[in-house]
User: Which sequence fits this backbone?
């Protein structure tokens, strides 16, 4: 089992002990404080107590959360990054995301459509947002996604919203959309759970 360096462990432990002590102090009741009686605020201000049923009815119901890491991805309207521009020379993400899946003893596998199978081992152009796999300004191995990442540890959608890229020439990292051209492949049983890959890729303006 890996151990943390002593230089990191000691400050972390000190912070934990300080937080624990602070929590203990904050949890202690203030000496001499008394709990106000129910309705005291309303009597002092002349405000009528809010009706509990009306308050509950006014509270908006929250929509059930979308399953994480599934589907074609969701581009939040609050994102500072603009959606992908419309281009007629690239494979639409709607085509890549339009597939079904099957559950086997080895996991969940894609069931590709005839359109997706027809692109296998052909030269295609893919447009997407770059997810770098190396801490360098230029990348030769990276992921393109249909929507930008929301954080460094979150996938924006399922495997159908990603294409692995192995570039012939380095591609500069950018927050702007990236377009590459190379040999496209469908992956029916990839060990990393990917569905698509482009090899010998080159950047395209």
Assistant:
């Amino acid at each position: 089992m890996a151990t943390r360096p002593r230089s990191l462990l000691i400050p972390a432990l000190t912070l934990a002990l300080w937080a624990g002590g602070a929590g203990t102090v904050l949890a202690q009741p203030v000496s001499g404080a008394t709990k106000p009686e129910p309705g005291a605020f309303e009597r002092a201000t002349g405000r009528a107590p809010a009706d509990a049923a009306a308050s509950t009815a006014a509270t908006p119901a929250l929509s059930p959360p979308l399953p994480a890491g599934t589907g074609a991805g969701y581009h939040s309207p609050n994102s500072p990054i603009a959606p992908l521009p419309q281009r007629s020379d690239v494979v639409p993400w709607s085509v890549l995301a339009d597939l079904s899946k099957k559950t086997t003893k080895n996991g969940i596998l894609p069931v590709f459509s005839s359109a997706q199978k027809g692109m296998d081992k052909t030269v295609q152009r893919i447009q997407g947002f770059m997810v770098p796999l190396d801490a360098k300004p230029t990348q030769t191995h990276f992921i393109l996604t249909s929507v930008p990442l929301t954080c460094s540890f979150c996938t924006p959608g399922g495997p159908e919203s990603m294409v692995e890229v192995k570039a012939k020439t380095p591609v500069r990292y950018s927050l702007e959309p990236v377009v590459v051209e190379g040999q496209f492949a469908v992956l029916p049983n990839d060990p990393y759970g990917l569905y698509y890959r482009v090899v010998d890729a080159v950047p395209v303006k």
